[in-house]
Amino acid sequence: MCITTLGIYIGRYPASGGGMRVYSLSLAAEILRAVAQQNNSDLPQLQKIVFWADHHCCQILREILVSQQWLPQPANLKRPQFIQAENYQRQASPSPTITIPTEIVLYPLSNLGGRKFGYMLDQTVVGYTANIQGVSIIHCTANTGIIATRKPQIVTVHDLYQAFIPRRHKV
To answer: Taking the model in full, what pTM does it have?
Structure first.
């Protein structure tokens, strides 16, 4: 399978988010850095990266994008208005051997209805927008996958403490 569009569901985090948030944002920064330096002879060109994240993580992602010289682009008006997206592109490299994604799409996840409702909303919005964006694979970085899509997924499970303290974390 040739991955041309990568989706990364960073998810939602309470307060500081702890280690999962640090991992997710570090991963995003490293992926963006690596993609900006990818070589045509080594990898097929990744055309798009789509991120879904809460508002706090989106703010950090915006700072990472700006620091790595990704430029905001006008919004694509074909998207439904209730799903806001931000587009970024990087200036073309002067070297013909270096390729960069044509587009970065950032979806800030709504805080509508509180945290539990937000997770249910994510299941719908992420699956729907993954289909619209033509995502080849979704990497879910925070213990949960997306059930409302048929796209292949990689789910990072950081730990299983919920299984050992069931009274605190109801499944």
So the answer is: 0.77
